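Quick start: what a row looks like.
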Amino acid sequence: MDRSEVDTSIRALLDPFNKKGVAIADATRFTDDLEFDSLTVMDFVAAIEDEFDIIISMNQQAEIENYGQLVDAVVKLQA
């Protein structure tokens, strides 16, 4: 999958978690803009791991602050 395909899939997964209907851009921050709490982050990460058959380590999760970083991380983990 290329970055644009990964982006499309993650946007579909993100939709149910985006309770406030925030416009998603690469700079969209999960904690600040989307107001994700730790439980929401865990559920969202689990959905991504299931969809792409990957594992995002806790260290990687700690480094991912915005949407663009997440897309890039998933692309890299699939390579």
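That is the whole record. The domain at 3-78 is CATH 1.10.1200.10 (Non-ribosomal Peptide Synthetase Peptidyl Carrier Protein; Chain A). The helical segments are 3-14, 38-52, 58-63, 67-78.
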